[in-house]
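PROTEIN DATA CARD
Card holder: LptF/LptG family permease
Chain length: 368
Origin: Luteolibacter yonseiensis
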Amino acid sequence: MRISDRYIGKQVLLGTLYAVLVLGMVLVLGNLFKQIQPLLVDMKAPLELVIRIVINVLPLSLMYTIPWGFLSAVLMVFGRLSSNQEITSFRVAGLSLVRLAMPVFVIGAALSALSLWLNVSVVPHSRATMFQLIYDQASRDPKSLLKPGVVNGENFNQDSGSVPKLLIEGRTGDWVEGFHLYLSPKADSENRDTTYVHATRAAISVDKTKRQLVLKLEDAYAESRNEKGEVTMFLASVAEPVVFDLRDPKKPKANSMSNEQIRREIETNPLLPENQRLKLHTEIVTRYSFSMACFAFAFVAVPLGLQSRRRDSSMGLVYSLLIGAGYFLLTMLADQFKSDSGATMMLWAPNAACVLIGLFLFRRARFK
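Structure generated from the sequence above:
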């Protein structure tokens, strides 16, 4: 190993570690504290539960902060080396730009392998564990899920054909004031009826055995509209209890399933809707494409870092923000495609673009 390899590799590694820590603090912890505040204050979750949720959230941030941190480090390191004329010195000594960048490609490949392990094994397990922890807390105190002024529904099941949305205006002990319930049909449901229920107030009780939230409505008004537009209404001074089952996390979302679980679901479920099948397939492709981000960034970051050499130390940061934001925005467009091939091409397009642009910039930089 050349001295130049150790010199450049050490700076890139230390810069990546520093950037990951900074990005984690700025981009993750601020949002994380906003999410755990309801657990501590509204749901009165024990501190042990909150700490376990924080531990499971941290791996989720690494799938973004590792590539972005590596990109920022390479841009800053090569920008500084170029501004100090160290790149010129290395090239006068007979080292080509590609040879100087070799430590960057090696580190990028190693970080891509680390990202692959995180995205395929660690992150899905962390998501599944986090959902289970929140479900366990909700099972202990379902009433804590109803917060005045906040629409809730993702934690409840109403029936197999509708999606509930709940809103309360106020809460006093076991009573809520201004209860609103909207039931909309699921995308794959044959029943297309929509229902709206309002009650001046409602009594809350919990069936801990069945893990259900039970509300007895007072001064209730309900309106149901079928697919033909026909409306049915009723008024009641006291309505029968409305029961909500807690959503069972045993049927996980795609992003909390392992690759093996996703493939098994696709192969063994012939009744799976096409949009759900596409979502499952896209989740697998996303994990692999995101994992290659570090290696792809290595191609474009080195020559761009050389271009930011003229005393403007902020250019490396600007480049990293633009490239990182563009990369992740392009991957989001995959949701707009209705075929596996289209979604797959869009997910891999940012990596291919980074490599091709990087090769072009490397060729230009060789003659400067």
